[in-house]
Amino acid sequence: MKNDFYKYQAQTTPHPLAIEIASAKGSYVYDTKGKAYLDFIAGVSANTLGHRPDVVIKAIKKQLDTYTHVMVYGEFIQAPQVALSKLLVENLPKTLDNVYLTNSGTEATEAALKLAKRYTNRYEIIAAKNAYHGNSQGAMSVAGNENSKAAFRPLIPGIKFIEFNNLKDLEKITAETAAVILETIQGGAGFIVPNKGYLKAVKKRCLEVGALLILDEIQSGLGRTGKLYEFENHGIVPDILITGKGLGGGMPIGAFIASHEKMTLLKEHPKLGHITTFGGHPVIASAGLATLQELLKSNLMQEVERKEKLFRKLLVHPLITEIRGKGLMLALLVDHSKIASKIVLQAKEKGLLLFWLLFEPRAVRITPPLSISTLEIKKGCKLLLEVLDEVQEMSIEY
Fold first, then answer.
1. Mean pLDDT, rounded, for 223-236
2. In the predicted structure, residue 82 carries a pLDDT above the cut 80
3. Parallel, antiparallel, or unpaired: how do β-strands 177-183 and 240-244 relate?
4. Neighbouring residues of 275: CB distance < 8 A, sequence distance ≥ 6
5. What letters, b where the CB count within 10 A reaches 16 and e where it falls short, cover 215-253?
6. What band does 395 get if pLDDT is binned at 50, 70 and 90?
7. Which domains does the chain have, with CATH numbers?
8. Percent of the chain surpassing pLDDT 90
9. Which residues share a beta bridge with 29?
10. What mean pLDDT, rounded, does the chain reach?
């Protein structure tokens, strides 16, 4: 299978981890040789409830027995779409009362940018340096790392960049600006948490000049920081909220959420202002609904802070210079990218799955399922400390 993987499947990097997957359940992934891997990646923050959670599998199977795709989004009334949209709205501020379900977070980003331009009749977008909002042309245009997009220019015009957490840069938001798009916690940049009052200042500036605030919670949402969405911790409400990843419980999904007043603009002048064939697929929507219901009725979100403290307590080592992030969205910082890579690769050999971040090569990702147990955290941290000791003893030249 590995030979066929390299021969027939397009690659994203020269050196993928290339574990041959046989099965996965809970906090573990198993390869074709029977080796178990404790998963501290969770599909890059996507498997909120772990692998193959019973409530999600049950919902998927029930929907498969009813109907799958029947019509393009927005034409037929389908119970899973309606129920998921309603539950999302019921747990958000009153100005976020209308949901558009998409196939991915990237697609939700694209549509949010379109909606902002349509609503404001402006085209300038302000994004953050080292931001990541997806990998299609529009989403890449508001990505803040030139190395990742230089080969694909020209991209969408009218994009300007500010430095995350820099209050002075907010002067760049003007009456020409349609929207400011920010990750509530910068992911690819190294899990950068906003300074106290920063997002309030951004929102205030947007109100002053008539720009919209789009918050990308594709990774930080769905309980990963202890709240359903991280913006709840900052005393503001975005004009457009983007979500995805963890909402699907392991299935592909995205959504952008705004006021009914704004969303109405996508259905007229022109009609079909944003369309999708498979967005809101009933099987995927059923998985999303089951995931959200479980999050809301369980204590998983309430347990996030305790689990974060446990990680921070256990992961003390001379190689770790800093632990960034919040909740179960953590990044270990080391002195050099070669050290970070050694940690990830050595951990894989020991049966612990870690990963990198996009734009911070010195970082090691820790984003386990929210359902991870205390014992699993302790086991994984013990393995990681053993890896850190081994890497410290190596002579790594850089």
1. 97
2. yes
3. unpaired
4. 72, 73, 74
5. bbbbbbbbbbbbbbbbbbbbebbbbbbbbbbbbbbbbbb
6. low
7. 2-52+300-393 (3.90.1150.10), 55-297 (3.40.640.10)
8. 97
9. 24, 37
10. 97
